[in-house]
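Hi team,

Below is the intake form for Alkene reductase from Hoeflea algicola. Please confirm the fields before the structure is written into the shared record.

FORM ID: S-0412
PROTEIN: Alkene reductase
ORGANISM: Hoeflea algicola
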Amino acid sequence: MTDIWTPAKIGVTDISNRLAMAPMTRSRAQADGTPGALAALYYEQRAGMGLIVTEGTQPSEDGQGYLATPGIYNDAHKKGWQKITSAVHAKGSRIFLQLMHVGRTSHPDNTTHHRQPVAPSAIKPGNQIFTVKGMQPIPEPRSLTIEEIAQTVNDFRTAARCAIDAGADGVEIHGANGYLIQQFFAPNANLREDVYGGGIENRTRLAIEVAQAVADEIGAKRTGIRLSPGATLGGLQEGVEGPNLYRYLVSELNKLELAYVHIMHLGNDALLADIRASWDQALILNRPGRALEDVGSDIRTGLADVESYGQFVLSTPDFVERLKSGAQMNEPDRASYYGGGAEGYVDYPTQSEAVVA
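The structure came back. Fields below:
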């Protein structure tokens, strides 16, 4: 029977077990978007996971939304990520960079160019964001032109090439969590009347174009995509058509033969079953709040090929070893999730270190 310890192939990438580190923003990059000095150690510590999916990494200046998030669109970024990919590979794991364009979930104070955020339509999300001046309301974004959408697609393509040049095994397109690609899905964020707005086929067009462009550039078998059906982050409401939008989208993406789809599952079991049935490649499943005793259950039933975990891995660098031995995991420190230095980042003890202490 297949379990979490059975090796697997994700596209063309062999992984030693079926556990993935989920992407988690840590906000510790340098001001220019180059990964911070401790980033290589942070990922190396967690390289017991079969696959690491990195924190969201902006493919352009417009793609940044939060303070101190990394980029992957210039030579300095590539050199910074090269240290990380080399460290992870030396430990026997594999690493995909997540390409994250936040769209309207941004603030001029947080970006290098200090420009107005961009989005499908000029609609505020109605929430706040942390900036150097503290919490501020997210301003009204500017609606992307058709030409700018084409440039955005090309930005993803270029960033994917930069990621491979930096030694990544592949990239994951962030189509979830209320960011740009999902903003196009949601009728309350996308009021466009052109080919990117209106019906399901139009609202999924950007996601498919980005996936096609990235696959053309680096190979479909090195390209994954993350989706979060029904997520309301960033003020999004996908409406009654939401489930059918994802059924259509996944069936279209399946034709591209991507390496994987990474689903953040929020409870619609019928939709998840339909996605599983219509997807012929690897499916990575993330269940927020999954109990430790349930680790591996979706692998055993065949619902997923890989399970991804976030907070467990953030706080417990030797998550895999402790899972095997049944040892207790570290408690995460929420106060140090974002920003700062080593504390709450690379100083969580392994089991052996905790025993010595």
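SUMMARY LINE: The domain at 8-356 is CATH 3.20.20.70 (TIM Barrel).

Thanks, M.
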